[in-house]
Amino acid sequence: MVFCGTPQFAVPSLQHLLQQQDFEVVGVFTQPDRPKGRGQEIAFSPVKELALAAKLPVHQPAKVRAPEIEEQLRALALDVIVIIAYGQIIPARLLTIPKFGWINLHASLLSKYRGAAPINWAIVNGETRTGNTTMRIDAGMDTGEILVQEELAIGPEETAPELAARLAEAGAPLMANTLRGLAAGTLRGRLQDEAAASLAPILKREDGRIDWARSVQEIYNRMRGFAPWPGAYTDFRGQICHLWGKPVSKEDEVQSVGGAFSCKSGGEPPHSKVMEQATPGTLLTTSEGLRVVCGQGSVLELTSVKLEGRKQVSAAEFARGARLQAAERLGKA
Predict the structure, then answer these.
(1) Residue 210, C-beta contacts closer than 8 angstroms, at least 6 positions apart
(2) How far apart (Å, rounded) are the C-alpha atoms in residues 2 and 101?
């Protein structure tokens, strides 16, 4: 087989396949080396690093659709090509080269969340369960026939990188078992349910901008789902401000900047009419730190804040340094 993959998500599967006696990986395709970080030094992909350590031939074509790549793949007389987060679209003429096709591991329960960012959008949309799907790719975007699926729960506080790591590890044996089923002739694919299909488009920077009119749970889901990029950010005094936090329960005490809105234990909860009338984005100080009014009077507890060009600090430290005014707001006026 040939293995095609690029990011860390693909590494557990390649590692697992290399450990199996019944598989032979004859080469690895990964994206070309690219500059990374502030120093813009050329960096290898995680898959390339593993392939080199395993002394596998590594191929990094700028365009996999190039005629010489087709010749190279045909010459290998492959049973299967495993493709996981490779980063290039495979032209239709290459799909029939391996005997069993190109087998993909996709981090959703297809046909839900087709596209580049299924893990992120599942969290953003408040899903409590997701999973992995192995499928035989076709000319469409994640529209190929389903081979095997495995469901996983999403933790209530789990971030996209944390969920991605769990799905990657769970996907490795799933891929191996899929390949064994295909080789044995015991595995038959099934068509996807087009009526249940949904999209998970590539993330854009603007996706991370917080709309304070959303409920606190929606905002928290976006903080988790858009970690580490684009993150969750807003405007504060004309600057971009990245935020981290968690929802405040209805029973929690809330006290605002300058006491403009307050709700102490024994009184009305923060979801009272007083809180619902507060403008979303309004900052609230408490004895413990800093909170923000969200839609429907819900409240977000800020844990840390990073102003553009500055280091990340605790919400309490940010509040002290900013010298907040009464009823000051986050977001564009």
Answers:
(1) 219, 222, 232, 233, 234, 243, 330, 331
(2) 11
Q: CA 4 to CA 23: how far, in whole Å?
A: 15
In this structure, which topology does domain 2-196 adopt according to CATH? Rossmann fold (3.40.50)
Query: 280 in helix, strand or coil?
Result: coil
* CA 182 – CA 14 distance, rounded (Å): 18
CA-to-CA distance for 269 and 298, rounded, in angstroms? 10
Locate 13 and state its tokens: 């599967």
Domain ranges of the chain: 2-196, 205-322
Cβ neighbours of 144 (radius 10 Å): 24
* Enclosing H/E stretch for 129: strand 129-136
User: What fold is seen in the domain 205-322?
Assistant: Methionyl-tRNA Fmet Formyltransferase; Chain A, domain 2 (3.10.25)
User: Rounded distance, CA 81 to CA 173, Å?
Assistant: 16
Q: State CA 102 to chain mean position distance.
A: 23
Query: What end-to-end distance do the CA atoms of the chain give, in Å?
Result: 57
Residue 9 gets which letter from DSSP? G
Whole-number Å distance between alpha carbons of 196 and 134: 18
Tokens describing residue 16: 């697992």
- 157 is written with which tokens? 């506080």
Q: What is the dihedral of CA 70, 76, 82, 85, to 10 degrees?
A: -40
**CA atoms of 73 and 75, how far apart (whole Å):** 5
Burial (CB count within 10 angstroms: exposed 0-12, middle 13-18, buried 19+), residue 70: middle
Q: Which residues contact 86 (CB under 8 A, 6 or more apart)?
A: 4, 5, 6, 10, 29, 30, 31, 64
Residues 6+ apart with CB under 8 A from 30: 4, 5, 6, 45, 47, 48, 51, 58, 59, 60, 86
Output the pTM of the full model. 0.91
Asked if pLDDT for residue 261 goes beyond 50, the answer is no
In tens, the pLDDT along 133-163 reads 999 999 999 999 999 999 999 999 999 999 9
**Residue 259's pLDDT is what?**
41
